[in-house]
Specification:
By secondary structure, the protein is of the alpha/beta class. It is built from five helices and 16 strands. The strands form three sheets. It has a seven-stranded mixed β-sheet with strand order 3-6-9-12-14-15-16. Strands 1-4-7-10-13 form a five-stranded parallel β-sheet.
Length: 228
Amino acid sequence: MLRALHEIRDDIRATLERDPAARSAAEVVLFYPGFHARLAHRLANALHRRGLPLIPRGIMHTARFFTGIEIHPGATIGPRFIIDHGMGVVIGETTEIGADVMLYQGVTLGGTSTRRVKRHPTLRDGVVVGAGAKVIGAIEIGENSRVGAGSVVVTNVPANATVVGVPGHIVAFHDESNGAIQRLPDPEWERMNELDRKVQELHDLVHHLEQHATAEHNGHHAHEETRR
């Protein structure tokens, strides 16, 4: 009981530290649906681990009604877990979440297998998953990695990486030794830039030809007027 109270206090502190919109502990306790969903999950998970039927699911079903957040009672969640806003968040049964993880609204930590095996993601400490992102399957997202909003991640992600796109691909690494972000080549972005350059070149060429044609037309017209 005492441990649970310490963890709840840590959750409140983490929210105040990481969410600039949070003004006080009372505001977090009263009006943060992510905090409420986590409270419900603590109780449901404890009952689930003791093998109680139905009641854990009933608790989380009720919590989903009030918060818009769906967490399976069997999911494993570490300390200082934050769900910002939270509407539409779905966390599957065999999901494992480490410490100091943060999810934004619309995130799905889903599974692909229909068998009773590990089929949901593992998020290591310090992971941040952006709004609307989908992390699917029994994959691992390494420590301190970032998943961009709207991304769909279906493969393992190493520590300190930034992943974006559909399907998700690594675009940068965070170097913990000096705090620098090392950006990787992005072939898709480079192709888009190349196409943009080609379009601009064609636009300039057409504009030049139009000017030349106009000048030729005006010169021809002036010559005809002189002959008259």
